[in-house]
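Collaboration report, partner site 2.

Our partner group contributed sequences for two proteins of shared interest, and the home lab folded both. The records are reproduced in the order in which they were received, starting with the first partner submission.
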Amino acid sequence: MKYEKLFEKGKIGKLTIKNRIVMTPMGTGFAAASGEASEEITRYYEERAKGGVGLIISEVCRIDELSGVAQPCQLSATDMSVIPSFTRMVDRVHAYDTKMFMQLHHPGNEAYPITLHGNPVIAPSPVICKTVGVMPKEMTTSEVEEMVKKYVKGAFIAKTAGFDGVEIHAAHGYLVNQFLSPHTNKRTDKYGGDFFNRMRFLTEIIVSIRFACGADFPISVRMDGNEFLEDGLTEEECLHIARYLESLGIACLNISCGTYETGWSIIEPYAFAEGWKKHLAQNIKAAVHIPVIAVNTVKHPAFAERLLEEGVSDFVGIARGNLADPQFGNKAKAGDDARVRKCIGCMNCFKMAALGRAIECAVNPLLGRETYRGDDKLVKDGNGRTVAVIGAGPAGMQAAIVLAKRGYKPVVFEQSNTIGGAMNLADKPPCKTLIEEFIETLRLEAEDLGVEIRLNTVGTVDAIKAIGACGVVVAAGGVKIIPQVPGIEKTVTYEQVLTKEVNYSGKKIAVIGGGLTGLETAEYLSDFNNEVTVVEMASAVGTAMYRSLTASVVEHITKNGGHIMTGSMFKAVGDGTVTINDLASGFDKDYPFDAVVVAMGVRANDALVAEFEAAFDKVVAAGDVINPGNIADATHAGYDKGFVF
């Protein structure tokens, strides 16, 4: 076995866990609106158990229907009526010798009013979460006491349903964390003030659950190792909390960090390296004698093994890694690391959640759709018939993989000398090497299925007719947007920059376009001692990206001396100048720049699609060629077109 420590059995209380991989909680939006375990969320967890996870900790499970709703479709442990659906879910997880805990949760002042059906946002004290922006109602002493009972009821429901344990969510700025932290707890009653009073709410929850469910029923506490707030919980105080919790008889600690206001530390974009926060868990592990679970932005099985070797934690929390590839555990155990579809840190999952939708994954188009997509739902009626796929980008490769599984013979035409399409540009900005790995994983998957890929070959109508294709998937990418303004011939494109056809250093550069393409091009240029200014017509940049990702890229640019100009229209290029119109005032102004890079992305190539539609009866289009978007859009479209072809 390649990773001996990762696949060593472990103990949490009296519970034996088959390996050291823990799928830590993530809100999904897959549950039924009633709070029951739907078939979607059941299948979602079942696939991860089947894929080799040792312990699954459920998504946030609400314990209060009035003020505790975190998502429209979220598991709920407020009424005994949910037990049958929970039992079915746990049974299907247990079939693979995987254990499952329920995470008990209340958002406190991090609840969004839209989810609360007119009920007030509540908190220990009237302190606003800056991310939510709503003044909460301070809980009375009796309301706090009643809330303790709701946590206990949730734990009792979990035990009755067959869960192996519960986890109390006391991190990330949620309600329990708000009682612990001096940043949010300004109370003067028995639940506020000194350390022990701030701990009282959590103490009562733990002691009461142990009384109601028995001392052998494992309780995990998810806690921060640092809030990263000026007046919040420090590393030193978090160590104190960890030691105190151990004294209450809990079974394990699950270490994370941050709050909504420091959300970049909870759900990190790609700029954060694996293990950047491992010291938080390592320090706590050294201070206690109970098992420690910790999340550390794990992307690779080898890194998970290293964390165990270094004694960072006893169990490795792998959350988004199990979204991206439900077979993460099994592939790691087989030593097949290269075939793991690794999380690329694009934040698409949480972008969807922030929109109020169920989560989606850029590299795994099956996430949450296992009940109606997946290999077991494929109609294998290809019978060896040839299908031409034009373009070897993410849409084309994903379509070819699905078609091959259906028994078709896909032939991929790629005009360049490599697969990956636009991802071969997307992997050039800082910290984007995971995209290179995704390209290689796609190549291996296609190779395993016998997909024929013809590089340096243009997929023309005649070429496709020559192979006798029964249909065509057009996934050839979009057409670069080049605005027709005076002096445009003096500019270069983002493609020329990212492929190093053009190199700049020590220059003052205007990057036209504040979307994903423009921001990442500017980020790349800023690392070569260039003073970069992003010029964007809209009132904000990166609006199609998740907010923490946009903030991370913008911070990178500005720290390197760059600038962001919004509400600004690119009008013309002169000799060493760029004319920009301020949309608010309507006035034009010339700004001095040494170079101008057009990075406005691509538009659909309708003419190319029409050309194939005129020549063949069965033509489908996927990706930028028909609907410009990101990697997630491309893989989802490619999968769907291969599925329904």
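Second partner submission, folded after the first:
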Amino acid sequence: MAQRVKEKKVSYDVVVVGGGLSGMCAAIAAARHGAKTALIHARHVLGGNASSEIRMHICGASESMAKPDLEEGGIVYEMMLDNKSRNDYFSYSIWDMVLFSAVKRQDNLTTYLNTAMEDCVVEDDCIRQITAYQQTTETRFFIDGKVFIDCTGNGTLGYYAGAEYRIGSEGKAEFGEQHAPDEPNNNRMGNTLLFKAVDRGHSVNFKRPDFARTFTEEELKYRTHSAVHGAKAKAGVDDAYLRMTAFSTSAVDYGYWWIELPGEKEDIIDEYEEIRDELVSCIYGIWDHLKNGGDHGAENYDLEWVGMMPGMRESRRLVGDYILNENDILSNRQFEDAVAYGGWAMDIHAPKGLYDFDNLPSSIVSFDGSYTIPYRCYYSKNIGNLMMAGRNISASKMAMGSTRVMGTCAIGGQAVGTAAAMCLKYDCMPKGILAHIDELQQTLLKDDCYIPGIRNTDEKDLAQTAVVTASSAKKGFGPEQVINGVSRGEGTERNIWISDAAQKEDAQKQDEWISLKLKEKSQVSQVRLTFDSNFNYAIKITLSAKRQKQQRIGTPVELVKNYTVTLWDGDVKAAEKTVTDNVQRANVVDFEPTFCDRVTVTIHDTNGSEDAHIYEVRVYA
């Protein structure tokens, strides 16, 4: 007798589809704020384009350290710091483990790997259920939910549900975008495969596979593909080329983002498999050209890894109550309902990708500073309980050229997951959270997210009205900085307390401390600390030797390592907790509710810095 596919029905408060960084951050945030959450992911490893299957490093608003104060915080940075503390040599297997650990240790979160969403049930313009098939267990799941979050990248859940969406480019007239095409078109950024090569220290041969495409130097004249090529380019190519290549690399060990194909059909998703096959032909053809097509400085290099799963940049964009556009980005717009931000340049890729041989692979629209992204871009305009995070949010094609990068996607995911949990609290649809936008913003700041223009005004934070003193302080970095409402540097304002070891009279090591005298005796149950990890140094997993050289070995030395938080009732210790071997920027220290009138943080050791660094201290009843 033939056996049927196993079926199982489950129910959750929040259902997140897609386990890239945006989906992970959405799911973890929802679960941390009390929602019973499911994360549905079609692959066996998490992280999407950042995973070991694709291996793109995390770009974001900091523009690869050009704007360091804009580095994304929150959950994504927490995972990056965890990785940095245990993975000095950029192993993607260890990174996979870090991401796996992040979801597996999270209470209220159930993760379904190797599970592809097949369809959804929609009633009264709301999603009631999705169906998903887990190939490894031959099980079909029927998953009910109250709020659904589309983090598929392709907007697949929204598409199945009938959500309004867009593809291609808007014309210049619709939003008045100066860099948009005169008329709408279906041009899109393409898919890319990456590779990693290693220098063996001696000549290494490469035998071209029979399926590989052949490339000439003339065809690749606008694509930096070796140190030799880069030197020639600097000697004889225009400024536009050099600006473009600043975002590239002249090495042959990691590449290349411009091995990119957008396909030819109306829908790039329909063509994914064909594009992948063509990209495999191209990537081995490029490598054959590097090895056997003249002097490219690749003689000693050997292919170590070649991706087989293309990273996607663009497909559908789901429409929300607001569509972010180029003008918002170039004007550094600050929205009243801002919940995330971006700073990555808008890039316009060549319409035919790699095969646009006579065009630069991308033109860059740069800008100073950052812009905010409104909450209205993160929920569907016409499907009541559908939210979205990632490259499929509500944005024009031009704006998506900036918002699509993974760091920006990840903090948007955390905002959406937090809002989804609030929907349960207020028994409302995602749009209803607009009435509670201040609470959402303050919650995100409390969880170490950053929103330009928004300060900590949390009335529940007892530290806001405290009197702050410290054992010592460098000039301009006084202890009062820890309650000024900003937990990172902004422009010339550093917003941080830094102790001054030079003020110590004796040569022996002494602990530094900071003390907060509360306005009145209160019952305290939690102290939240934001330490300094020094955003001036990258900490991301990457295959790029150039990006690896921007980094330091080990945990950031500025981070506080060992410290004690003490609650005082007068001169009596009412409660005390010591934390050791800390590797995180954001720390939460919980107590049984304890009456006290003073809180001290005593720093015993940092991870290498001579002085103690603290951005923010919060105290909660």
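Feedback sent to the partner group on the second submission included the following. The chain has a mean pLDDT of 95. The CA atoms of residues 80 and 540 lie 6 Å apart.
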